[in-house]
Amino acid sequence: MAYTITTLAWGMIEYQEAYQAANEFEKALELVKWATDYFIAAHPTKNELYVQVTDGGLDHSKWERPEDVKRMRRLYKIDQNNPGSDVAAETAAALAAASILFKTEDPSYSALCLRHAKQIYEFADQYRGAYHNSVEGAATFYKSWSGYNDELLWGLAWLYKATADDQYLGTLRQRYSSLGGGNTPAEFSWDNKMAGVQVLMADFTGESQYRGHVTRFVDFAMGVQTTPKGLSWKAKWGPNRYAANYAAIATFAAKLEPALSKKNQYLAYAKKQINYLLGDNERSASYVVGFGKNPPQKPHHRASSCPSWRAVPVQICGFNSLDSGTANPHVLFGALVGGPDTSGNYVDDRKDYIANEVATDYNAGFQSAVAGLQFFAMGG
Fold it and tell me: Is the whole model's pTM more than 0.90, yes or no?
């Protein structure tokens, strides 16, 4: 969730004109605040952050609406004895990004977000460790495969962007190489934010080394294997998500000043990836629920697959809804599903969670890429 909010907020900051032209900026602010209110509530003391609700295995053993959950659910937290630098630094980044968005809209809330961001980052940096080593069962679902160095740099970058305090930029410069900032990551995702760090450093400094790192990453993305119609296919699980994230970074890279030599190529690449997701693909069909031609009707999403209701008592939802071959009764408008195989084949099957899972992080990069393309289409 924290990665989702940071990435969404980044697009809102850079492409605000596009959001405003679509009359969506205020709604997007509400979306961000829904999450940041949660992050703030989850940070009751300086070195304490609640990071997970319920056990992942237990949660996956039920197929039900969230509103139907009446049982007590265990909360998991990190603290100085059980650190989680990855999740804490990402939460700090999200709050710092939100503080920029609300600086003129709601200055007092902006200050509140920034205060929590600073405290949470200090906690992440001082007490280092991976979240999945501190929270029971987390490794099964959210293991930090890339480690937490990227989040430590990412959090610093967003604190600098939010404050213009040279202390943050100085520390970022000092740690950049030793924490892997100069490497070319294979992805930009909830697990690895290094490509985002590179773009922000290029933006902050204008220096050739950082601009070179950005160019190297986007060039790498454009060289990833593709489906026959051109989707950058990074991995079996959620290829649409990775392609959308590559597209988002490409648009952010295209906004750097002075312009990178391949700016137009990067925008063309981003447009191709997004157009693929919207229907310019092997199936001539959309991968966005409720949008375009022949969109997915059976995303792997519990609440939207449960029986519709307009009065009580409400029909109980269970695994029969998962097994049903009919369309989800509720249309999950806007959700981006996992995506096709390397040949561009896709089956709209709720039980195939690899191809049909939806998630907030799937939509975060997609949303920012769409906003970026609209920004440039408007002459940005």
Answer: yes
